[in-house]
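Problem: given the chain below (357 residues), write out its structure.
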Amino acid sequence: MPEKGSQGGPAACEPPFIDELRRLGNEVEEEVYAYAETQLGLIRRILRVIQTARRFRQRIRTGKFDLLHINTSFDSRALLRDFVIISSLPAAGTKIFLKFHGSDGRLLETNNSVLRYLGRYLLKQAQGIGVLSSEERDNFLNSGVPEKKIFLIKNVVQNKLEAPDPQFRAKMNLPEDVPLLLFIGRFIETKGLMDVISACKLLRECNQPFMLLCVGDGPAREGAEVEVDRLGLESNVRFFGYVPEEQTAAFYVNSTILLFPTYHYEGFPMVIFNATAAGLPIITTRIRAAADYLKEPNNCLWVEPRRPDLLADRIIEVLGSAEVRATANSSNKQLSSHFSAEIVTEEYLKVYERASG
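Solution.
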């Protein structure tokens, strides 16, 4: 499990999943696997991985577990950590299920012999491999991973959100008479925040009223703030910084549109599926789980990555049609019901049974 205070999808979707496992009578024990503090030197990171490996080995040796479910990702940094920890576990006994919260398909074709060895070792050791999109499933199958090991799974989405707050704008010092465009998530270049800011410049040139709410933090924030100043968009863009997961619902339910033109390799962007629970119209790129579950125009409007001009056109299209917004509201709320803890957990139990058989 991710440490409390961690950002990202696992911190949001795994706790309700575990609660439902326990409600159904399953015994579950949790161990910290990913840490909230990420800005560490190389030596500190290595020591932390070794400590985690020792702790896991002791738990497996002294306990009796049917399955070890590891929340991780298939990328170069996680590969090394996972290899150290999994290779240190007892050779027999507990089955291993790797849930990849995102995967870098390039690693399956890499010419780097070390990364290729690490990846093949992990995929061989796992009895089950959970991926969050059909694109990722096909990538693993095409690389030679046995079909019986690969399972297409979902994340739990909390779909019982609060109602819109009539006082939200006043509390946040936001204007009452303009649409609220929401960008939320970790601020890294590949999430598309700079594309959103460039699209906002085009909206202002078209005299389209709006306010962009930027919720989150990360290495791309400083550059984004500089760009907002350079373009003279200070009165149209607000940066709220990191907001704890349990407080983000207010931004979803009180916004007008979610903007998420990502080209990151995450599997199941929780930002998008949290927006479905709020009934928000969504403008995003056709990748990974979004491509699997969202349909245009009922759930979303698609854009190409790195095309702020198309993004601006799509925003104007949504803002200009009450019918589009109403359809998205009902369609997305209906879609989010398929990701409830009850439905997803039952599906997982069947996957676990097949992976352990």
